[in-house]
Amino acid sequence: MTATGQARRPLIVADSMTAGYELERERKLLTALEDVSLTVHEGEFLVLVGPSGCGKTTFINVIAGLVKPWGGTVTFNGKPIDGPGEDRSMVFQDYAIMPWRTVEHNIQLPFELRPHDFSKADVAEKVQDIIEDVGLVGFEKSFPYELSGGMRQRVGLARAMVTQPKVLLADEPFGAVDAMTREVLQAQLEALVMNAGQTVVFITHSIDEAIALGDRIAVISNRPGKVREIVEVDMERPRLAEGEITTHPRYGELREHLWNLVKDEALGARDAHHDEGDSTGDSRLDRLATSPATTMDPGI
Amino acid sequence: MTQTSQEPGSKKSTDGAALTAQPRIKDADWTWARIWTRYRFAIVTVINLSVFFVIWQLLAHFEVIGPHLIFPTFTDTLRALKIGWFGGQVDDGTSFELLRDFVIAKNAWESLQRYAISMFIAIGIGIPIGLAMGGFKWVDAILSPYVWTLSSLPRLAIYAPLVMIMGIGESIKYALIILTAIFPVIINTWAGVKTTEQSLINAARVFGAGRAQIYKKVVLPYTLPFVVSGIQLSLSRGLIGVVIVEFLTGASTLGGLGWLIFRSASAFNSALTYASLMSLAVFALILVQGTRSMEAKIAPWRQVSKT
Ligand SMILES: Nc1ncnc2c1ncn2[C@@H]1O[C@H](COP(=O)(O)OP(=O)(O)O)[C@@H](O)[C@H]1O
Ligand SMILES: [Mg+2]
Predict the structure, then answer these.
(1) Is residue B95 part of a domain?
(2) Cα–Cα distance, B138 to B142 (Å, whole number)
(3) Is A96 left (phi over 0), alpha (psi -120 to 50) or beta?
(4) Who surrounds ion ligand 2 at CB < 5 A?
(5) Domain housing B165
(6) What is the ipTM of this complex?
(7) Residue nearest to atom 10 of ligand 1 (CA)
(8) In whole angstroms, what is the distance from residue B293 CA to residue B284 CA?
C-alpha cells in the first residue's frame, strides 16, 4: 500500500494513449484524451483529479475495457487491454446497480456472469462476508429503491469487491453521497483495499478526498486531457481509521499545491465548454419511474 | 380516538429499525369520524352513482331526451340485463325479437373468445417484434417504416383493402383486432430496449457479461415494465377493435357484444342497447383496473418516485 520504499511493479501502463468518441449526430470525432502516458503500480492507490469533461471517465473506461483507445497502447500486466476482465472491477458514479435485484442478488451478479469454481454455498458466504464488510447487514433482501444513495453505493462497492479483483476502478463513487456518509465510506474503502492489497484507480473532483485516499494524485488537464502533474501523498496509513487527517502537517501544503493546479485547469475549462452534466444515481431512478414512450397512435 | 404511536419525523425505510418495528397503528375505537375517513371514497361513490341512476330514470320516465325507443328507463335496462345475462320470460310487448334468454351472455362469450385469441396473438407476436427491432439495427431498419406507418394510420382505413383480400369472414375479424392492438406492445417493447440505461449495460460488461447475457440480465428485466404498459394499452385498443369489427362485419344472429349494441340500436331496442353497453363498460373497467395493479406487482421499483 505504501507508495515509497518498495519496488514498484508497473501494473497498468498507458503509453501515448489517445481516446475519444465518434459524435454520430454531428459527424465529428471528439478527442477526450490526447497523448496520455501514465503508469499505475501494483498495490498503489492512484487518484485522478481534473476539471469535469477532461476525460477522467474515459481513461478509467479504457482501463476497464469499455472504451477502445484510438492510438497508443494501454497494457495490463504487460498485455494490451482487450475488453473487460475479471481482474478489474468497477464502482460507478451513478451506482449502476440493477433496480430489479435485491441487494444480495446485485452483489452476487459477478458470479453469475463469469464462470468460476465456487460452490453455491461458497458464493453465498462471500456475498455475506462483503455485506458485513460494507455495513449492509439487514438489507440483504431490500431493493435499491428502498435504500439511500450512500447505501446504494455500498452495494456498488460490495459488488465490485466480492470477487477480490486485482484492480478496483472507481469513478467518482462518492460524488452523489452526502458529506457525512462520504467520510464513512472513504474509511471503509481504505480499510477494504488495505486488507486486500488492491490496486485502485479512483476518480474524484474533491481535493480533500484525493488527499485522504491517494498514494499518488494525477492532475489531468483540460480536454483533450493530458497528465499535468503527479503529486505524491507522503502520509502514512491508515489515515482515516481514527481522527482528523486535516490536522496532519503535510495536509495543508498538499492541499494548497493541488488546489492551485486544479484551479488553473478549472478556470481554463469554463470557457471551453459547458459540462454535459454528471448524472447522479437518483435521477436515474427518476427516469426509470417515468412512463415509457407514448406514441402518436390514433387508436383505431 | 386513541392516539396512534407515531414517532416524530417518521423514519424512512432506509433505516434498519423501521423495517422491523412493531406496527405503528394500533386498533382505534370505531367512531363516525373514523368510518368516514376510512370509507369516504366508497360512500361518495355509492351516493354519486345512485344520483346518476335516479336522474337517468327521471329523464327517461318523462321522456325528456326522447321516447323509450331511443332512451330506455334505468329499470327497463336492468330488466334487459337480467334477461340477457341470466334468462327469464319476456312477458309483455315492451320487448323485441332480439331480447331473448341469455342473449347478452352468449354474445359476450362470443366476443370474449375472439378478443382473447386476438390478444394472445397480438402480444405473442408484438413482444418478439419489439425486442428484435430494439436489439438488431437491421431488423429495426427493415420493419420500422411499416410499423410506424401502420401505427399512425387510423386502422379503420385498412378495412377496405383487407376485405378485398380476405373477404368477410372470421379471419378478417382477427386480422383487424390484431392490427388495432399490436402496435403499443411493439413500440413500448422497442422503447424499453432502446432506453436501457447505458451505465447498467456497462456494469454488466465490466462484470463479464457477453451480448447474450446483457440481454438476459439487463435489457430484458429493464424492458419488462415497458412491455407491461404496452400490454395495458394494447388490451384497451383491442377492445375498441372488437367492437368496431363486430359492427363492421355484422352477423345474422350471434355477432358478439359489439354487434349486439349496434343491432339492438337499429332495432330500437334501447333497453338492450344500454344493457349491452353497461356490460361492456363493466368488463372494460375490470380489465383496466386489473392490468393497472399488474405493473405495480411486476415492477415495484418503477412505482417509487411516482408516489
Ligand atoms: N459516450 C460518449 N459519447 C460522446 N462523447 C462523450 C461520451 N462520453 C464522454 N464524452 C465526452 O468526452 C469528454 C470527456 O468525458 P469524460 O471522460 O466523461 O470526462 P470526465 O469524466 O473527466 O468529466 C467530454 O467532453 C464528454 O462530453
Ligand atoms: Mg466523469
Answers:
(1) no
(2) 6
(3) left
(4) A 57
(5) 103-302
(6) 0.85
(7) A21
(8) 15
Q: Please name the member of A66, A94, A289 whose beta carbon is closest to the beta carbon of B304.
A: A289
Q: How far is A261 from chain B (nearest CA, A)?
A: 31
Domain boundaries, position A289: 10-84+200-295
CATH code, domain with B223: 1.10.3720.10
Judgement on whether residues B119 and B66 belong to the same structural domain of the protein: no
Residue of B nearest to A111 (CA): B207
In terms of domains, do B149 and B234 share one?
yes
* B276 lies within 8 A of chain A by CB: no
- CATH code of A221's domain: 3.40.50.300
Residue B35 — left, alpha, or beta (φ > 0 → left; ψ -120 to 50 → alpha)? alpha
Q: Which of B206, B224, B307 to mutate to test the interface with A (most CBs of A within 10 A)?
A: B206
Residue B7 lies in a domain: no
| Range name among A238-242, B134-138, B287-291 with the lowest pLDDT average | A238-242
Contact (Cβ atoms closer than 8 angstroms) between residue B259 and residue B250:
yes
pLDDT tens across B183-203, in order?
999 999 999 999 999 999 999
The closest alpha carbon to A251, from A231, A269, A270, A268, belongs to A231
Total domains in the fold of chain B: 2
B230/A92 Cβ within 8 A: no
Same domain, residue pair B173 and B285: yes
DSSP state, A173? T
Q: With a CB-CB cutoff of 8 Å, which residues 228-267 of chain A face chain B?
A: none
Q: Which residues of B touch A113 (CB under 8 A)?
A: 204, 207-209, 213, 217
pLDDT tens, position by position, B280-298: 999 999 998 888 778 778 8
Question: Domain for residue B22, yes or no?
Answer: no
